[in-house]
Predict the structure.
Amino acid sequence: MAQSRSVIINPLDNDSFHDECGVFGVFGHKDAAALTALGLHALQHRGQEAAGMVTYDGRHFHSRRGLGHVADNFSSESAISQLAGDYAIGHNRYSTAGDTVERNIQPLFADFEFGGFAIGHNGNLTNAVTLRRQLVKRGSLFQSTTDTEVIVHLIATSNYVTVVDRFIDALKQVEGAYSLVAMTQDSLIGVRDPLGVRPLVLGRLDEAYILASETCALDIIGADFVRDVEAGEMVVISGDGILSLHPFPRLPRRSCIFEFVYFARPDSVMDGRSVYETRKRIGVELARESHVDADMVIPVPDSGVPGAIGYAHEAGIPFELGIIRNHYVGRTFIEPSDQIRHLGVKLKHNANRAHVEGKRVILVDDSIVRGTTSVKIVEMMRFAGAREVHMRIASPPTTNPCYYGVDTPQRSELMAAKMDLEAMRKEIGVDTLAFLSMDGLYRATGEPGRNAECPQHCDACFSGEYPIALTDQEGGAHAAQLSFLTEVAGKR
Amino acid sequence: MAQSRSVIINPLDNDSFHDECGVFGVFGHKDAAALTALGLHALQHRGQEAAGMVTYDGRHFHSRRGLGHVADNFSSESAISQLAGDYAIGHNRYSTAGDTVERNIQPLFADFEFGGFAIGHNGNLTNAVTLRRQLVKRGSLFQSTTDTEVIVHLIATSNYVTVVDRFIDALKQVEGAYSLVAMTQDSLIGVRDPLGVRPLVLGRLDEAYILASETCALDIIGADFVRDVEAGEMVVISGDGILSLHPFPRLPRRSCIFEFVYFARPDSVMDGRSVYETRKRIGVELARESHVDADMVIPVPDSGVPGAIGYAHEAGIPFELGIIRNHYVGRTFIEPSDQIRHLGVKLKHNANRAHVEGKRVILVDDSIVRGTTSVKIVEMMRFAGAREVHMRIASPPTTNPCYYGVDTPQRSELMAAKMDLEAMRKEIGVDTLAFLSMDGLYRATGEPGRNAECPQHCDACFSGEYPIALTDQEGGAHAAQLSFLTEVAGKR
Amino acid sequence: MAQSRSVIINPLDNDSFHDECGVFGVFGHKDAAALTALGLHALQHRGQEAAGMVTYDGRHFHSRRGLGHVADNFSSESAISQLAGDYAIGHNRYSTAGDTVERNIQPLFADFEFGGFAIGHNGNLTNAVTLRRQLVKRGSLFQSTTDTEVIVHLIATSNYVTVVDRFIDALKQVEGAYSLVAMTQDSLIGVRDPLGVRPLVLGRLDEAYILASETCALDIIGADFVRDVEAGEMVVISGDGILSLHPFPRLPRRSCIFEFVYFARPDSVMDGRSVYETRKRIGVELARESHVDADMVIPVPDSGVPGAIGYAHEAGIPFELGIIRNHYVGRTFIEPSDQIRHLGVKLKHNANRAHVEGKRVILVDDSIVRGTTSVKIVEMMRFAGAREVHMRIASPPTTNPCYYGVDTPQRSELMAAKMDLEAMRKEIGVDTLAFLSMDGLYRATGEPGRNAECPQHCDACFSGEYPIALTDQEGGAHAAQLSFLTEVAGKR
Amino acid sequence: MAQSRSVIINPLDNDSFHDECGVFGVFGHKDAAALTALGLHALQHRGQEAAGMVTYDGRHFHSRRGLGHVADNFSSESAISQLAGDYAIGHNRYSTAGDTVERNIQPLFADFEFGGFAIGHNGNLTNAVTLRRQLVKRGSLFQSTTDTEVIVHLIATSNYVTVVDRFIDALKQVEGAYSLVAMTQDSLIGVRDPLGVRPLVLGRLDEAYILASETCALDIIGADFVRDVEAGEMVVISGDGILSLHPFPRLPRRSCIFEFVYFARPDSVMDGRSVYETRKRIGVELARESHVDADMVIPVPDSGVPGAIGYAHEAGIPFELGIIRNHYVGRTFIEPSDQIRHLGVKLKHNANRAHVEGKRVILVDDSIVRGTTSVKIVEMMRFAGAREVHMRIASPPTTNPCYYGVDTPQRSELMAAKMDLEAMRKEIGVDTLAFLSMDGLYRATGEPGRNAECPQHCDACFSGEYPIALTDQEGGAHAAQLSFLTEVAGKR
């Protein structure tokens, strides 16, 4: 608070992509709220700025939303006991600071003529601003700045009768990437957009059905994995069982490949593949493509670890913890003075000086976004006495922003969009620098390579090929900034 | 928290009527937010559960709303500095506990096609539920449980073009009591319902115009009183000056007489009459109507003081502080045990034992609602040794609930609706009990008496004559209870 | 927080004397903690900055202390239930801002060789710094900056055996004013200094004994008043009953006369006299001494009310509420701009403009300290149109600081120490100004006048005659400022 | 709060030893407080329950202490700016819940006759209770329940003149393990007990000297490592440079071997040896001693990682992340119901199911304390489908509590004190279980083996040989429980 003018050291890495959300839902379990809290906790890596839950007890909906982690909002008995009912949906939110006002915290809830409706969204709509303008013109009042609210108003103003038909009617009008969990007075609904960009899985715990962004959220509650929700599928779970609808024209799945590179938890299984195994295979491919002699392979903690294990094994070079992570990373620390301004990264990491001094090291990291962290880590390794520093990146250069639900910098801030390989190597200060090839990445996911005609994944951040129209971007639309964003938020 | 099951002593008097709101607005002053904070502070007696403000700086609207007193939310420099702009409106809210969720705190703000719009409301709409149902059916999504939001949606869906025409269009559809302050991107608007039930005054501070519920809010900022906003008048204050509109059929003013009895601050001037003077006159009328021999006249603090002064003067009996008020009344205290359960009222008041022992006392109070406080106060006086206790009430018996913006108990909880005078006297435990007559009350406000054909005030709480249709009540409508009211409440 | 550099309006009157403490104790009641909370609440006017309590359950002592009001710290069931036991002592603290760190909050507790001991103090020791130096030299470590801790160390290092003997030994070494409540493992002890400067009363509730600074604290719990603890008396309450000791040479009582003027609650009885009655008598004496023609007598709320009633009655001039007090005074408000810098006092008071306009008014206030509030109130009355403003002060000019437990400004800040009557009249801006005479004040307390040989009260603030040696002052001692006072302050 | 009666899942591992403190000091740097905050942050693993700092600016001491992490208390600019001065000492505290009252947070500060003195302590005194009794008897008043306060009182009551002589006088009377940092008005002092049980290092940053528990705290501020403070050495750092004193009879160093096993950060260098390297060597020794065929070596995160790397390398079996750690571990979650009561460990860890299913796995963990976590982790691996589970422990069986500054369970709760190897294997549910031998552990620290005559380290937790007298234990002394421990705890 009120420290805006002081120079601060932020130990939290903002030099990476951030997934924007995790979703979770339960239908038919007496501990629905507690299970949802646990599921959201397992999905905390997908969004740490806010968390919310809506439950239904057969008569009333109950809601609780708050800034901060799941454990900050949902670990007290009183919080859980107020969230009565056998159905629940929950949501973790990541967002850039300015937008994190409480009214944007999901699940959104609406009181329709036909009853209550709650919805949580992972992804991003690419024509939300355009649709919002049309809705406002006809008298709809928006209460948040989230794209998701467009879906709610489209349902409210739909001419169809049942809630499922209205929901489908609304989704046919939106474009973008979305994995949704929704709740009506008698059903839990899961939907994945026609390309299946964001993940969504179906699980089962005893008689209850579960929806979750990733399988690790099934594991934490001891639920069984049933199957992925398919691209373009809507599952309607009610007392009558599961109804599977395919309301959109069928398209081949094109799920986000960056989930494998960084977003998903390594213990999740996605599209039938182990994320951990895929990351190790990425390391193997990387070692094959860009071998270099060295004394040790060092992961940049923690996301670089599986890739480094794969690399080390393939290259026959010892895997070592050359960088130690501080487990107690706080938010910010005041920087003492100019003289020691380079401390930032050390709040989070420290070089294992005794071990790397005089050695040739290979650093393995998952990706390079702005490159600022890489510069600091290499500087730290040099300061600790490493003789040679080679950097290997477990993905192709990230040259384009994501518009499908990932918080990424402007193109102009992406290091790989501004520089060629040699310029990047110099800037980062390494002896050699290599990225994984696009085909190598696809191979690691079990494909023979990238199918240029019809790529098996969305890889727009690497290729610039956007598989879903960017209507708002192209129309020059910018999100109508509600004027009262200062309202409640961080204020206390 | 979590103490709901323990028996607690609540020293705050819930045995009285509570006004539901105070409103304030400034147009054209560089310190608009600070002035509004001060104005709301002067109007704190009209609503203590939440406070809010919206300002406009020519480009953006800024908002801040919070539970608690004005000083809790608007006394920090940072709070005020974030509320930039030359226009501001503010609102104090009273409400029963269950409804005090943050989303109900006013001013409400909406982002219309034609720009931002903020509104604050003192009063109550009597057809809000009926209108809400119609709006929901056509696809409007409500985000609060306040009646005021109906006006916002009626504006959004109006077919008129200008914001003023849309506002008038909306108001023509609503019934009830309202004094409104609203703000658009180029104007400050004040409106009083056709009967002028709730107060609203116009003031001036240098070049700036001020709207406020009472004149005491003009005094605190050193503004001059210009005039009352008239019953049925809309004033539109803009860069072009003040435009006065009378969009409704003209009716004789019928302002709430209970404002004189209890709600308004004694230093306010209402309908051209000093509230303090009127209360003293009430005491004089009361002494004339129901004289009794006694040693002293004692006000029930603090609302009974002016009436007691008038009574004492007229009766020629000394005015004495026989009940001392504790200035540090906190919210609640834990009750030690059954044996001393009668302490409740003592947290707030104590009998001046040394002074009343052995004396014949006349207690003057403003009104009797449930009667529970009266019972305790009389018990306290008896315990302190008063020889005779006579009670004189500065208003007629309150026999009917108010539907025009005052929080009152059900009819079945009103003592005077359940018992005749003698039964009340016994229940309260006094030697004699007398209420002011209806004509006496009207005389104190400067009238020759009540004009039964066309009463000069709304006196429904005394007479049961409701001057505005109770559409929702008669239609059996109950406010659609949004299901997620638990949302914010328990959270902090 | 962190607003120290902004100009703020502090509506809380710092233009008055502040009593420094209230004490309370219970022996032998199962609700000891709850009763103590209520007693402290009734004594809240004696100290608002912090509150504390220590209880003993026969095996363990329990303590809770916190900044803020009693209700902030002791109104929750969990707070009370943790304070187990049948004995309790409690303390309200007033202090200047800098010293209000948590470690100074009383009761102080010490773990002696012979067991636990807790003590709460109203008053001030005038040789504390001198004694502290001696104790530190011998190896005693001080943990607070309170004078009271000296007593604790003197007990710890005493050569006597029993706790009562050690306590007496300690008190024989201290000088100053003190009313103490203390608790050992088997007794509750009350002590009043040899002159009885600060009040202390003994009460009874069923089988339990109560000690309290004022009788109003007995009233709130329904306890009977037994008697004042005498000047120089120590009462030791244990399972064996009450033991009354007089360990000091007997001196005539000389209790603080300012308690009658301002500190004590009007519903208390002190030295056998009703405080309210005494204040009314002061008003009568004042009217006799300095009559002036006028239209109304107006109290400066709230302390001026009894005096104004007495004055009005004696002078035959109507008593009127010409100044209305805002009941919702918050801590501070940001001042909007220079132009309206005079608002300060209006946050707390407003002139009853409609009533005073064109009138000749007599303002009655209890005392003048710095005079700044008087200047503002008179300005407010003039602004509201009063034709003549006469001020009558219900005490003699306050010309000297108090060293016996009252927070007073330096002598150089006392208006009456710097100016003569005419200069004060001009500065305050009144038509006439008069103070009560010293003899008038004594007459109001039931004496024939002040006995110059042996004054019946301590009146040092009016007379400059200090009845107890000011050892530290004369020795040039200043409280050793512990270096870590910043400790708690900024923390939350 | 108020959840005491509900069954909760505590994801924080209380099935391990906890180091009790970290200390840090700076002499002669303008950013002393900021550097100390960073140093304490790097030492956060040594104590997470509270943090404190005292600085000296040449005239005043400043202090700030608070419950929680360093970042919770020392990351704001205002916190740091209040801690003025060029000298600072800081302290991280671990403690069992009941004792974490604010008054126990170090550094302790005392205001002696000769000036201020602050002290922070890592270790535990084994005759503190005995000394405390003697001090209390002579009139010393204790204000905390920490053993460290005994040293402060011994200094206060010493007959020596200079602060250094008094400090030495005090230390000659205490027994136990201690690494101390202390601060006087002109010096920073570091001391290590005669055996050097707890670590303490000396560093240099430009002209400033630094004291720290571990070298990782030098790294974070970019300071150079100078040397270990020697066992039994006192270093007095002042404007005159460093003075090295050896006030005690010289003994061979016998530093805690558990620091190498678990406490110290892997990037620290201790007694001249890399902790990370030592842990890898432990893994190597373990593989040599207890080889078993398997498909992969899996570390129990995170402390088992270096040992697992060494084991995997020596055994030629792949190192794999078979257990994934959740980075967002909150404090507690409500357990949904009996049926899924086994979730506890999953809040922190999840089995990498896709990777371990059907495999033979070797789990490497640092130690076994109660064994409860081991049981859960093995159960989790079995549930995930591991075919064989072998457990290898990177230390000998822990059979005895530590009395030298480590929080350990009673002997009766130590699994290895209650069962033989086979019983432990069965209880934990593994196919094979093996511990490192005592000689193997010593070999990993660079010794040829344990010297039974004169062991090179304190290994009492493994051997039961306590090198320092346990005076209080043997005398049956228990810490005098100050009676007011409830004081702060319950307050918020």
